[in-house]
Structures are given as C-alpha cells and as structure tokens.
C-alpha cells in the first residue's frame, strides 16, 4: 500500500513541480520583457533580479529552521498560497492602476521568499514522500520537469507576449499556482519520514540555537562537508562560464543571435535527455564516483570552450563545435547533481535536512555574485583562454582532492542503510 502511495507521490510531485515551474518561467519571461519595454533600462531589469536573489540568500537559513521545526506539508502549501495571493494582488493592481515598477519589485520579493520556504521544505521531504529505492528517480523527474519548463516556457511566452495582455499572463500564473496547491494538498509528506516525534509540551528549540545545531551537524560530518565544498567550489568556478560564455560567443566569435539561441537550446535538450535516462535507470551503487567523474568532465568541457579562440575554425565549424559542447555540458549537469542530491538525501538525518540544505543554498547564492564579479574583472584584464583553462584545471584538481579514493570508500565501504552520526555524537 505504501509503495502505491509513493508511486502516486512520484507523479504528483513531478506534475506539481512542472506546473509551478512552467508558470513561474512564463511569468519571469513576460515581466522581463515588460520591464525592458517600460523603462528601456538595464538597471531596472537588474533591480528585479536583485529582488529575486537577495531575499533567497538572506532567508534560506530561516527557511531551513522552519522546515525542520514545523510541518513541511503546511509550509509548502502555505508558501504556494502566498505566491498565488501575490500574483492575484499584482493582477488587481494591473487592472485598476496599471503595473508599476514598485508593484513588480514587491511581488518579486514575495515570490522569492515563498519559493525559498517551499523549495527547501519540498526538497527536505523527498525521503518522506517516496521509498529510498526511488529517490534518484524522484530527483531526476524533478530535474526533467524543470528542463521541460526551461525549454517550453520561452517559446510559449514569446508567442503569448505579442498576442495577449499582461493580465492574461498573471491569470495563467495564478491558475497554475492554484492547481499546484490542489496537487500538493493530496500528498502525505510523512509516508516514509523518520523525523523524531517530540512529546507534547516539549519546548521548541530557539531559532538561532537550532540554526547553530544544523551548522554543527554539518561540520562534524567530514564526508558531508567534502560534498558541500565540492558543490560550492563547482558553483563558484563555473562563474568563468556564466560570465564568459556569452561574451566569447557574441563579442569575440560574432555568433549570430539565432545560432546563439540554438546553442543555448542544446544545453536544455542535454539536461532533459539525461534526466529522462536517470529517471529510467536504477540508482547508482557509487553516486559520488559518478559525480566525481562528471565534474571532471565538466571541467574538461570548460577548458574546451577556449579551443576556437586558440585555433582558427570556419564559422560552421565554430557553430557545430559549441552546439555539441553545449549539449554535452547540459547532459553532464544532471549526471553530477542527481547522484550528489541522492547521496545527501540518504545520508542526512531527516531532522537536519532543512537546515543543511539551507546552509548549502545560502553559501551557493552568496558565492554566485562573488564569482561573477571576480570573473567579470578577470575577463577585462586577462585573455579569455587563460581564464577558462586555469579554471578548468583548478576545478578538476579540486574534485580529485576533495573526492579522492579514500573519501569515496567511506561511502561504498559502508552499509547504505547507515546514517551519518548526529551532531551530538
């Protein structure tokens, strides 16, 4: 009976994620165009991005505490309802007074906060929703739904933007959000959960004490800390690609906009196909080994971006080279992320998942702008091939040090049912 319920969760979770992601992507597409058309200012556009990133960075630790202290199902549903109310509020403003930048920015902040609490609570609940054997499948289906949204939403958004008004976009997003709430309300978040049940009357741990306990738990697990540092350093070093990729293709190599769009699409297709493959196959026996070689391959692909800058190639050859590289890089993403996520899901105690994932998200979000600023400066003062090849070598060296054979053996040599010790041991 439990397995049937878990199967229902698997597909309901995927549908909910796909619906909400598709609505959010179309909304983001429309709002971005609207801001640029309204103001013609890149600063106004950047301010909306800051309204999305900054609240996530600041509130992620609190979201982790809430996810580990209160009902995760209630958090997910409440956050989705708040998102729906925010969109309906913006819709009412657009119909009565017309859209304004302050209203858009305020809505973006609310949506970012709701997404932070919902995302961390949902991620922490995966092991409670599905059986352990299908955690990899759940994570892959989640990635697949996000990929579908990333591929389809620009096309749908582009078609709709010229044909319908902004209130129609808001109605579509609100409808998608309401449908997600309905689906999430039918799920049992405690089906396989192993959270400690506290006796009635037991005082709740204070927020900052709880957050410190989550940090202490992570710090006392050398294996877990190695994985966290790998994730953070990969995120940081890929700033070299995030900053330099478009600059190299458009400014240095003069790739046409239509061809650049196809190259970007190649990455989304690679992500989608690899996600489908991972969802269909059984779980990896050594997830960290898979991620280790996947990251090394990503490091190699980062260095290969510099090849057309070092060797003369015809335009057709450059386009084909980057299209292939983009597809391969996209496919490597889920091959790296999914095994690491599965490892962390299985190894982190249920009572600490929210806080550990929030620590990871906070540090990652903080490192992203730092990496972009650093590599933005480096691209102005150093040749692009040097930056890419150096970052590639550093990434490969980092993963082979942090995920060396002795570290991998701590996982493969242990009983997969064993949990990491808690912070109190």
From TrEMBL:
Keywords assigned: Cell membrane, Membrane, Transmembrane, Transmembrane helix, Transport
Protein localization: Cell membrane
Membrane topology: Multi-pass membrane protein
Subcellular location, principal: membrane
The organism's place on the tree of life at top rank: Bacteria
CDD domains in the cross-refs: MFS_MefA_like (cd06173)
InterPro entries for this protein: MFS, MFS_trans_sf
Sequence intervals crossing the membrane: 21-39, 45-63, 75-96, 102-123, 144-164, 170-193, 214-238, 258-280, 292-311, 317-336, 356-378, 384-403
Transmembrane keyword on record: yes
Pfam entry (one): MFS_1
Gene3D superfamilies the UniProt entry points to: MFS general substrate transporter like domains
Official protein name in the record: MFS transporter
């Amino acid at each position: 009976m439990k397995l049937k319920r878990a199967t229902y969760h698997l597909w309901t979770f995927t549908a909910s994620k796909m619906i909400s992601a598709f609505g959010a992507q179309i909304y983001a597409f429309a709002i971005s165009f609207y801001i640029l058309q309204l103001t013609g200012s890149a600063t106004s556009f950047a301010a909306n991005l800051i309204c999305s990133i900054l609240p996530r960075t600041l509130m992620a630790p609190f979201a982790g505490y809430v996810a580990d202290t209160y009902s995760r199902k209630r958090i997910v549903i409440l956050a989705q309802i708040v998102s729906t109310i925010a969109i309906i509020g913006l819709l009412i403003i657009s119909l009565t007074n017309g859209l304004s930048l302050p209203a858009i920015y305020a809505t973006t902040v609310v949506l970012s906060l709701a997404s932070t609490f919902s995302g961390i609570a949902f991620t922490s609940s995966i092991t409670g929703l599905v059986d352990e054997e299908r955690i990899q499948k759940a994570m892959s289906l989640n990635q697949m739904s996000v990929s579908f949204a990333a591929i389809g939403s620009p096309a749908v958004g582009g078609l709709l933007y010229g044909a319908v008004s902004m209130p129609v976009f808001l109605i579509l997003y609100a409808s998608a959000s309401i449908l997600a709430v309905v689906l999430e309300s039918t799920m049992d978040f405690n089906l396989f959960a192993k959270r400690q049940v506290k006796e009635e009357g037991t005082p709740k741990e204070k927020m900052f004490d709880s957050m410190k306990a989550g940090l202490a738990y992570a710090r006392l697990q050398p294996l877990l800390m190695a994985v966290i540092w790998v994730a953070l350093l990969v995120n940081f070093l890929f700033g070299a690609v995030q900053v330099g990729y478009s600059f190299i293709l458009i400014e240095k190599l003069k790739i046409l906009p239509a061809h650049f769009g196809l190259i970007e699409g190649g990455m989304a297709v690679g992500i989608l196909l690899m996600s489908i493959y991972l969802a269909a196959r059984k779980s990896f026996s050594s997830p960290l080994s898979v991620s280790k070689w996947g990251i090394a391959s990503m490091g190699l692909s980062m260095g290969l971006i510099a090849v057309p800058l070092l060797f003369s190639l015809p335009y057709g050859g450059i386009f084909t080279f980057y299209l292939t590289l983009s597809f391969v890089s996209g496919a490597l993403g889920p091959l790296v992320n999914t095994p690491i996520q599965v490892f962390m899901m299985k190894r982190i105690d249920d009572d600490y998942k929210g806080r550990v994932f929030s620590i990871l998200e906070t540090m990652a979000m903080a490192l992203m702008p730092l990496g972009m600023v650093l590599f933005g400066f480096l691209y102005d003062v150093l040749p692009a091939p040097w930056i890419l090849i150096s970052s590639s070598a550093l990434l490969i060296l980092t993963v082979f040090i942090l995920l060396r054979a002795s570290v991998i053996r701590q996982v493969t040599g242990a009983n997969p049912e064993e949990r990491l010790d808690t912070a109190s041991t």
